[in-house]
Protein: Mannose-6-phosphate isomerase
Organism: Tetragenococcus solitarius
Amino acid sequence: MEPLFMEPVFQEKIWGGNSLNTIFGFELPSERVGEDWAISAHPHGVSTIKNGPFKGQKLDQLWQEHQELFGNQQGDVFPLLVKILDAADDLSVQVHPDDSYALKHEGEFGKTECWYIIDAKPGAQIIYGHNAKSREELAQMIREERWDELFNRVTVKKGDFFYVPSGTIHGIGEGIMILETQQSSDTTYRVYDYDRTDKKGNARELHIDQSIDVTTVPARKESLNILEKRQGESSVITYLETEFFNVYEWQVHGILKLKKQAPYTLATVTDGFGRLIVEGKTYELTMGTSFILPNDIESWEVQGEATLIASEPGKNV
């Protein structure tokens, strides 16, 4: 069995730019591309397989018709979505619901996500959490637009990692590129959007009532138990093991040998270049390459000088 390589799916955004071209070499449809949905079966942007016996098929179709590729996992929906985001401008400050709220109100799963900072301009910041002590105080601070008091800002740099569970107020700042691993959901509640208007002069919709409903209060302090396992000059860094996904960094300096530890594995090259070797066959890897290693691939090897962010379905998926 071959790895499944993905065609990128680009999403134009009011805050997007062209760094997915200048850094990753992608051919973009405009100068305002904010996202590459790198591995996705979500109906708002479905990946197409670009190689092998399933070339030209959509990932959602593969999930429905060839469950053996994914270890016969349960569920109607492929559970993960991997994106590369280029924030040429500030994203809205937002929050996502959990599964129970989203299924009841939106008809899809909630959205827990995490971010690996691919690159960031000096001094770039994210909004990560809030300072309200009660839901009543949260509502009051939002209604009074006391943004500087409410939002918690964090300066970031290349290589940082953040866990963003549902209920976390967050916003990606200008000059940041991230690899996002998330539940397969596109439900976002905007708290604040910097009073921006679109090209027609219309303000984008805010979702104040929903945001107050779903925000975790007081904000939860997330602590990561990051583990590194070295293999010569290369290493595997474990960032997260959650009910939704497990996320790793593969740091390749020469050779990195890996074995299957989940029904399937997703990976994206965020830096450098190299080769993926599966059952004696070699596949070239360049920045932005995204692929799935299906269930019947037991082991593989990555060679070169590269960083990849990999993920697997979590224990409850």
